[in-house]
Design a protein that fits this description.
The complex is a heterodimer of chains A (455) and B (306). Chain A has 455 residues and is an alpha+beta fold. Chain A is built from 18 helices and 16 strands. In chain A, the strands form five sheets. Chain A has a seven-stranded mixed β-sheet with strand order 1-3-2-4-14-5-15. A three-stranded antiparallel β-sheet of chain A has the order 11-6-12. A two-stranded antiparallel ribbon of chain A has the order 7-8. Chain B contains 13 helices and two strands; from the N terminus they run ααββααααααααααα. In chain B, strands 1-2 form a two-stranded antiparallel ribbon. The chains are: A alpha+beta (455), B mainly alpha (306).
Chain lengths: 455, 306
């Protein structure tokens, strides 16, 4: 007998083990491959496919629960009446979506309907990016009858054309989230605060210091320094940006006064402390703040995370004796791919679906889970909004805030460097004067780059 | 003598002509051709585009404008570029200084344990290398949670003060570094253990007979033998560490405290739409890596010649 046929028992055992190992590995790989091909779980943040028709519409939506719910519901309703359509709602985290949209548009691989933010596109020539919507939704005058005109102002483009429809806004910095219980315990009615000075007095009362360490901040501006700075410059009657020249100028008397006020919150008024806060929703959840200016959209998020929290929203009170202009941060918008220009059938569905997503019915369902404001006037004209969980708050905020919101319409799509410099100044890493100068330098550099490209 | 030289010259020339005339294998040419095309597509073209972009002002959409060396001068004047460079160099140096000696040491200890225990221990050390990076990051984010995290739980049990880890600008970089060391050390151990097992047993026995203890055997026999592997590991690690992206992108600390050059380059290109500056930063990364690798090669050459 040859050695090839006769194997020692140990060799035989080893061979069997190897086979078993290989088959087990093969099975595991197959299982993983099958699992990755399977439909994704239908969780609140999961991507979904709706309908089975031959016309496939792809939607990119930010991973924000209320928006996904609203868009998904509108897509389901639409697909019911249009059997030739299938809709793929693809959920993408904010930063990834931000990084993905512009390269995808340039490559022609973007989704048919995109939920994005207006600030992402201000440094690019919008005429080259998306489908002009005027002929489908009407001109600016017509659109301003269905959305708040100021919301439309944020989407203003050269030639007055409309490339994206305003959708919603969390109203960062122009609205303040309040811990109602904290205010009640101090006997302060947050709805009576008329000016920032009133708010500051309340914050001083609400701030708690134990053994020399702050354990609760009366009001936090963390993460909103730059927005608040711009709002306060406007409220003092100043200006920091000249669109015609494309120039930023923060180092003015108004700018210096605004950054000084911000700094004073930490070092003079002592209503907040960098050591206590991290600028995330955790601050509220851990009961470390009584109010913050990061926007009324937080109310629904925070109450969902902790149902024992009792929150409310108010308009961030403007400086006493000043203008009541509020700073408009980025707003969520809906836009259509320019590729649809060549596909009339799909374009018809996309326009209709986008209208459905922006309809009062679709938005109404969102006010059960979202406390921010919508750009649609139709929604707030609907009496049903008063009966949803966050409808009354959203309605109150929208009616108070939208008429006072202003947008810079600058050509800087990413202000992170400027924000960081302002924060460094407030943290006393550099002087306030230096902080303003550095922020201004970054902003002017970016402005000039955009200007140079679009010249 | 002169005849011999002439004859040698003729033979050498004939051999060279014969080599040149030797027909290349078609399979070899085809394989090399495919690789060349692949290499061109995934490396040469992107590299060329990156260099071109570094001289342009472009954002994917608008007209691109030639700006000469402006992006390079902007990068050199940008304090955030220098901060990212400092973080990259500091992290790479610390990671390397810890991982290489530690993996050699563990490999040496493992070489003294034979059979199944060695294989089991090796598998345990190597396991983190096989875990996908995203899973590792999620796992460590949970460990580092300031409230309810395991590490602070242990600190609390030991009576140590609670730490902020990833939420502290001073601790975030070192928290990420610790995770990377944990995740990467297994690869080095396997490599060094393989090197140690090739050392002839007679050498170690001779050293033992001469009265060398474990430490002297390690220092005078094992380390010199491992020198080429150490060199390889250092060169490869430097390249990998400087380009490391996922961990820093997913575990970003406050105040840009974990923003390396690779992450900064990505952010400039894809979040600020400043492709030119992003490309200039990536060219600086290339120059940095090239210089580091060249310095190591020269140093290794001089050591080898000694």
């Amino acid at each position: 007998m040859s050695a090839a046929i006769v194997r020692s028992p140990s060799r035989e055992r080893r061979l069997i083990r190897r086979r078993q190992f290989l088959s087990a590995t093969g099975s595991a790989c197959a299982a993983v491959a099958l699992a990755s091909c399977a439909e994704q779980a239908d969780g609140p943040l999961a991507s979904t496919r709706i309908g089975k028709g031959p016309v496939t519409i792809t939607i990119w939506v930010q991973d924000f629960g209320p928006m996904i719910a609203g868009i998904r519901r509108a897509a389901q309703e639409y697909a019911k009446g249009e059997p030739e359509v299938s809709i793929s709602v693809q959920v993408v985290p904010y930063n990834d979506l931000r990084a993905k949209v512009i390269p995808a548009v340039a490559a022609g691989s973007e989704a048919d309907i995109i939920n994005a933010y207006n600030s992402w596109f201000v440094a690019a020539d919008i005429n080259r990016m998306f489908l002009p919507l005027d002929e489908y939704v009407g001109d600016r005058e017509k659109v301003s009858r269905i959305v708040f005109p100021n919301a439309l102002e944020a989407t203003a483009t050269p030639g007055g054309r409309i490339y994206y429809m305003p959708y919603l806004s969390g109203m960062n910095v122009s609205s303040t989230t309040i811990n109602v219980d904290d205010f009640k315990k101090k006997g302060i009615d947050h709805r009576t605060l008329r000016s920032w000075e009133d708010m500051l007095s309340a914050a001083k009362e609400l701030t708690v210091v134990k053994n020399g360490h702050m354990v609760r901040s009366g009001i936090s501006p963390l993460g909103q320094f730059f927005n608040l700075l711009q709002a306060w410059i406007w409220q003092q009657g100043g200006e920091f940006y000249d669109r015609a020249k494309g120039e930023w100028n923060l180092s003015t008397d108004h700018g210096r006064m605004a950054i000084q006020r911000l700094s004073d919150l930490f070092w003079k008024d002592r209503v907040c402390d960098f050591a206590l806060l991290d600028g995330t929703s955790d601050d509220f959840l851990r009961r470390r703040i009584s109010a913050n200016v990061a926007g009324v959209y937080q109310v629904s998020n925070l109450e969902a995370a902790d149902p024992t929290l009792h929150l409310d929203g108010i308009m961030t009170p403007p400086l006493a004796g000043g203008h009541s202009s509020l700073f408009g941060g980025e707003i969520a918008v809906m836009t259509l791919s320019k590729r649809l220009r060549h596909d009339a059938r799909k374009r018809r569905h996309c326009v209709a679906l986008m209208r459905a997503m922006l309809s009062a019915d679709a938005l109404l369902s969102m006010t059960d889970v979202y406390s921010g404001t919508m750009a649609s006037k139709d929604l707030y004209r609907d009496s049903r909004v008063e009966k949803t969980r966050f409808g009354p708050l959203s309605q109150r905020m929208a009616s108070q805030l939208w008429p006072k919101i202003r947008f810079t319409r600058a050509r800087v799509s990413d202000t992170t460097d400027a924000e960081t410099e302002i924060e460094r100044g407030i943290r006393k890493e550099i002087s306030l004067k230096e902080a303003l100068a550095n922020a201004e330098k970054y902003l002017n550099e970016k402005e000039q780059l955009a200007y140079q490209r679009q010249r | 003598m002169g005849d011999i030289a002439v004859a040698t010259g003729k033979v050498a020339k004939a051999t060279s002509v014969a080599r040149r005339a030797e027909p290349a294998s078609r399979l070899g040419m085809a394989t090399a051709g495919v690789l060349l095309v692949y290499y061109t597509i995934v490396f040469l073209i992107p590299f060329g585009v990156a260099i071109w972009l570094s001289f342009e002002n472009w954002n994917f959409i608008d007209n691109h404008v030639f700006v000469g060396f402006a992006n390079y001068t902007r990068a050199l004047r940008d304090p955030y570029f220098w901060k990212a460079l400092k973080i990259t160099v500091l992290f790479s140096a610390v990671e390397l200084a810890v991982t290489v000696p530690l993996s050699i040491f563990i490999a040496y200890l493992l070489s003294k344990v034979k059979g199944v225990p060695q294989r089991v221990l090796l598998a345990i050390y190597y396991l983190p290398v096989m875990i996908p990076t995203v899973v590792t990051v999620l796992l460590w984010q949970l460990l580092y949670l300031p409230t309810g995290g395991l590490v602070n739980g242990i600190f609390s049990a030991l009576g140590l003060p609670q730490q902020l880890f990833l939420q502290s600008p001073n601790q975030a970089l070192w928290s990420v570094t610790a995770m990377i060391i944990w995740a990467e050390i297994g690869g080095g151990i396997v490599l060094f253990l393989a090197g140690i097992t090739t050392i002839p047993a007679s050498l170690l026995e001779a050293a033992q007979l001469d009265g060398a203890g474990l430490w002297r055997q390690f220092r005078h026999v094992v380390l010199p033998y491992l020198r080429p592997i150490i060199f390889y590991q250092v060169v490869v690690s430097v390249i990998a560490l400087v380009q490391m992206f996922t961990q820093f992108q997913l575990m970003n600390g406050p105040d840009f405290s974990t923003r390396t050059l690779a992450v900064y380059s990505y952010e400039l290109g894809f979040q600020s739409d400043d492709l030119g500056l992003g490309a200039a930063v990536s060219v600086f990364i290339f120059i940095l890596l090239f210089a580091a690798t060249l310095a190591q090669l020269l140093r290794y050459k001089s050591i080898w010649e000694d």
